[in-house]
Amino acid sequence: MNDEQHADRWLKDVNVPLILLIGVISGLLLLIIAIGAQGWYYYEAARERQVKVYEGQYRDLVELRQQQQQRLETLRWVDEDRTRAAIPLEQAFDRYLEQQGQP
Length: 103
Description:
4 helices; two-stranded antiparallel sheet
């Protein structure tokens, strides 16, 4: 058998429809994997945004809130001349009610 006959026999043995079917299925699977990976990325990005923006606590804001709450709850002088004092809100409400004659 010479080379030309061997090549012709090899071409006859090639199953072209099967190769095309495998190529189409592989392309579809690749497309499905790409769409799935993109969807997964968007899901993870949205979850990360949820954690950072909506559920995250910003340390500066938490500290500021604690300072404000402490200022509301402590007895202190408001000015340097010590002519005005700040009292906790609970005590201020109690004193106001006493002045108004309510228990």
